[in-house]
What we know:
Blueprint: H1 12-35, H2 41-62, H3 76-84
Helix pairs in contact: 1-2
Amino acid sequence: MIDPPRHANIDIEDQLDCIRREIEKRKEVYPRLVAAGKLSQQKADQEIDLMRAVLVTLFWANDREGQAWIYGDEPEHEVRAVLGEVAE
C-alpha cells in the first residue's frame, strides 16, 4: 500500500485560512515591489486574482452547495462571504 502524501491530511479549513493569509501578505508586499519596478501592477493584480480564485475553488470544494455553481446556480452570497473575508 502506498502512503498518502503528508499534505493529504491537512484540514481544508486550515488551507482556506492559509490562502487568506497569503492574499493579505501579497497585498502588503506587492505595492513595494511595484514601486521598486520589480513587478508590474498588471502582474501583481493577476497574481492576487489567481490566489482569490484558489480561495473560491477551495471554498467550493469544501461546500456541497458549491456543486450548483457548475450549472450556473452560483450562490452569490456564499461567494461574496468567502471573498469578503479578504479585504479588497
